[in-house]
Amino acid sequence: MCGIAGQFNRSGQAFSPAQKEFIFNALKRRGPEAKGEKSFALPAGQLELFHRRLSIIELSEEGQQPMPSASGRCWISFNGEIYNYQAIRTALSQEYVKLNTLSDTEVIMAAYEQWGLQTMLDKIDGMFAFALFDQKENKLFLVRDRLGKKPLYYSWTGQALFFSSDIRIVKAQLPQAQLDLASLDYYLTELSSPQPHTIWQEIKQVPPAQLLELELQSGAPQLSTYWSLKKKEPLDLNLNEALEQTENMLRKAIRKRLVSDVPIACFLSGGVDSGLITALMAEESSQRVPSFTIGFAEAIDMNEFAEAKALAQRYNCDHHEIVVEDQLFDQLEGLMDYFGEPFADASILPSSLVCQAVSKEYKVALSGDGGDELFGGYPDYGLAFRSSQFAKKHPQNQYLISQLDKLLGRLKGKKENMGACYAYLQLPPEKRLFRQMGFWSKEALYTQKQAPSAQEHLQTIWSNFAGSGTALDQLMRSSLHSRLLNDYLPKVDRASMYHSLEVRSPFLDIDLLNFAFNLPDELKFYQNQNKFLLKQLAKTKIDPQILNRPKKGFSIPIGDWLRGAAKSWGEELLQQLKKRPYFQAHYLDTLWENHQKASNNADALRIWTLLCFELWAEKHLD
Question: What is the mean pLDDT of the chain?
Answer without folding.
Answer: 93
